[in-house]
Write a structure and sequence with these properties.
single chain; 223 residues; alpha/beta; 3-stranded antiparallel beta sheet; 7 helices; 25% helix; globular
């Protein structure tokens, strides 16, 4: 049996490829759109569930899975990754007794967990101290880096462009929009939605298939 490489399932291929190609300076050997292979025997796959034909149960534990890269200028790479938005360090450079110097960091991507009858998600969540859990209902959860949400993203965008919160409008339909609805002043609820958002909605529009976003923008005088 011959080991061929490591396949990493990602939710955002563009962002993942840009990270490994531009930040980590890995050379792309094969690009099939949904599948990207790098020269160091690892690949990214964006439609893995469709590929294998089953829903996946994602689990994350500290140091459960690691990719190792060797570099000559460790300090330069540490500084580069510290300046890259969304990267959370596990620890900075440290030296082991045998002379190896390393630093470790988490990949920025969120992951999606689906629990079944025999699953024990609460036990897993208790070990995910660096993640926030979003309950999507029906045993489905999104796990995102703690301190990062749609609300923090909106805050960043508004500050960057100098826009007040009262002039911003958000659209949502799912439980993963809850942080955004709690934060924003103008919350547009899509016609088909999760009831958890209803207490925070300021306007309910039509369903997505009925051009609900365009309808709300016209009704509210945005366009």
């Amino acid at each position: 049996m011959k080991y061929c490489g490591t396949l990493i399932s990602v939710s955002d291929m563009t962002r993942a490829r840009n990270f490994y190609e531009q930040v980590m300076e890995q050379k792309v050997m094969l690009d099939l759109g949904v599948h990207v292979s790098f020269e160091n025997a690892f690949s990214l796959q964006s439609n893995y569930e469709e590929l294998v034909g089953v829903k996946l149960e994602a689990q994350r534990k500290p140091d459960n899975f690691q990719l190792y890269f060797e570099v000559d200028d460790l300090e330069r790479w540490e500084a580069k990754l510290k300046s890259t938005e969304g990267i959370e360090f596990i620890h900075e450079i440290k030296e082991y007794p045998w002379g190896q110097r390393v630093f470790r960091f988490y990949d920025y991507d969120k992951f999606y967990l689906i629990s079944g009858e025999n699953s024990r998600p609460k036990e897993l969540f208790g070990r995910l101290r660096d993640m926030e859990i979003i309950d999507r209902g029906n045993g489905e959860y999104e796990c995102v880096p703690r301190g990062h949400s749609k609300a923090t993203a909106i805050d960043l965008v508004l500050k960057h462009y100098g826009i007040s919160l009262d002039d911003a409008y958000v659209f949502g339909d799912s439980g993963n929009d809850l942080a955004m609805f709690r934060y924003a002043s103008n919350c547009i609820l899509m016609g088909k939605h999760d009831e958890v958002l209803e207490p925070y909605a300021t306007f309910e529009t039509k369903e997505v298939e009925e051009d609900g976003i365009a309808y709300a923008m016209k009704e509210l005088g945005i366009i």
